[in-house]
């Protein structure tokens, strides 16, 4: 991949993420929310944005040598974003978050978010133990969890009536799905099923 | 006046359809409808404040929450029942005391309370309403409702309580 193509890809990526963040920052809902609730919401958007960067780092599309190491750090950042997201919502309204964690929330999107969160935490544990797991288990487990994380997060984000603006949210969600599917196909992890 | 002169096909088809409907039990006999009680909704009780005071209106107003309170089975209107209303509004979070207020139903079992505009919170524009038997005479079961507004731009919310006698 030429340097120019890589630069263009970076620019497109940054544009999609920045557009979603800037549009959300214009939301009228923000004026009626306390800072901790706002931070929780934006932490969720950052998590969605990181899901766009993550797969492209593995395919080597974004950078050369250190991409794999960046992927690990971005993964840790993703865990942090989700922890801040849930903690901020907990402070804002504890009973609503307890309902989500116990899978008894009335809102249809929360179960998608909860499942994606547990899949993410499972991935972090898998990643920490990957040397003991062996390549086959690690790659299959990580890929399966990634499918759950990406699908769950996108459905979760799309169904929420929140600060995100519809067009930029839709675009970011489609890009996340596309990047995930493309990476899965390119990595051909299913060969390991045989 | 023309005399109907049905063909044999019409007679057979009509009689057959009548027989089929009668035999299949698709007809509903006309009988008094039994009104089912409102079940407590999931998450309805979240951020409830037992004993929130009866108020003229919550905050600056501009949004109307209205509704009826009736008895299960016969649907008789229930007067003087205390309903607490709370939501995330333009003036405060659900947990804030200033976002809560209670109102009594009138002789027709109707309640109306003005409050600030409800805004989407936790992903949906929704209100919370409670009928708490501990703050009433204990003759009906407690019910918590969590209605979701059709649109975030709606400036009113209508809610119907059907209470089950204890």
Topology:
The complex is a heterodimer of chains A (194) and B (166).
Chain A: H1 3-25, H2 35-58, H3 67-92, H4 94-101, H5 110-128, H6 130-133, H7 135-159, H8 166-187
Helix pairs in contact in A: 1-2, 1-8, 2-3, 2-7, 2-8, 3-4, 3-5, 5-7, 7-8
Chain B: H1 8-24, E1 63-71, E2 82-87, E3 100-104, E4 110-115, E5 127-131, E6 143-145, E7 156-163
Parallel strand pairs in B: 1-7
Antiparallel strand pairs in B: 1-4, 2-3, 2-5, 5-6
Which properties best describe this structure?
heterodimer, A: 194 residues, mainly alpha, 78% helix, B: 166 residues, alpha+beta, Immunoglobulin-like, four-stranded antiparallel β-sheet, signal (chain B), Intradiol_dOase_core (chain B), iron ion binding (chain B), oxidoreductase activity, acting on single donors with incorporation of molecular oxygen, incorporation of two atoms of oxygen (chain B), TAT_signal (chain B)
Characterization of this structure:
Chain A has 194 residues and is an all-alpha fold. Chain A has one domain (3-193). Chain A is 78% helix and 0% strand. In chain A, α3 crosses α5. Chain B is α+β, with helices and mostly antiparallel strands and 166 residues long. Chain B has a domain at 63-163: Sandwich (Immunoglobulin-like), CATH 2.60.40.180. Chain B is built from 1 helix and 7 strands; from the N terminus they run αβββββββ. Chain B is elongated, with a radius of gyration of 23 Å. The interface between A and B is medium-sized, with 21 and 23 residues. Chain A: It is a multi-pass membrane protein. Chain A: Keywords: Membrane, Transmembrane, Transmembrane helix. Chain A: This is Ferric reductase like transmembrane component. Chain A: Residues 44-152 form the Ferric oxidoreductase domain.
